Amino acid sequence: MSMIHDLELIVRTVLQTDPSFRAIGRDEMERHIVDARQNALADDKDAFLLSLMRLLALPGNGHTRLIPNTAILVLPLRLVTIGSTVRLLGAPSGFAGAIGGELIAINGIPITEIEASAAKFLAGTRQRRRVIGPILFVWPGALQRLGVFSGDTNVDYRIRDAAGWISELVLDTADRVPGSALYPRNEHGKADPLWSPKAFLEINDLGQRGLRMGLPSFFDPGEKALSNAVSEAADLVRSRPATPLLIDLRGNTGGSFLRAMPLIDALSDGAEHRRVALLVDKFTFSAAIVFAAILKHRLGARLRLIGEEMGDGLTFFAEGGTIDLSSSGAAVRYSSAFHDWAGGRIDETTPSEIAEKIVPVGTLALDHGWTADLDDVEMHDQFCREVLDSLKP
To answer: Which of 169, 188, 90, 179 is nearest to 142 (CA)?
Structure first.
């Protein structure tokens, strides 16, 4: 089956139904459709996928995007943006000494220049682009399109360690692995690409100091485990109305905020003097952002937002679904509903159960910035203790 079929499916299913494209002119869309069609006819899969990435990035809506991970082969490096720098979190054994270092250049071109060139292929906010962008840096087809790689045998990565020493990692482009082996569809930022939450609720009881609750995901295909975890958390919160709380939403890529509402109710009802801190990062998305927005609306100054800017803004298109492209092997995420948690607006696409919950939050400005490697347990634990101490009256 031809990749033309994939393109036709996108035009029919996404471009004609996804409301985020209403603001994009038909002529502009058509230019990118023609580019994708030409690459499909030339049977150039990498170029075709990149054309689709650029097409689907036009609305700037992060929920609408092409996900190439399962369709491409990449060089065996796991790169993740920590804070505002791209770090090496995984590499073949011969390069293990460079793990943890900062990527500063590819083939002599500064990574900042490459990121700027890559932006047009990446959907969403600056933070979402930082989350999904690193796969482009190990995808030879993308590096060629970005003018970084001419198609020669090797690609040279320069990595700087904490002491300032620079290592050169020279990789043979013949040695590639499936993109999905190193880059998960829902990027969580951890060193292990196969990481998934072991439970929907993590509790660290620090006694008089307070409680830390980790909520690593709101996505539960089984529909029972998340609801049970939320119920357990809500009961615990109600049983300790004066206890300071730190809720960790880092790496929570979303799911259903509606199923987390019992915990929001418990946090905001009957505890007028309680102080709550939310720990968030660029890997906090979708339903987890909505969780933060509703809690901020209810608690006001009693809520402290700590960490780094989240992966999306408060106005976006979501819901929709995911379609698999049978010819190219990629996936497409598309949207169907308007959300505006900044101004509290809805439109005809907003589902009624969501429209009932939408509130005008304005902004979710950080009260305190903090960035750390998600796998640095010791630093994380110390910081959590300091945050809980700061919540006491």
So the answer is: 179
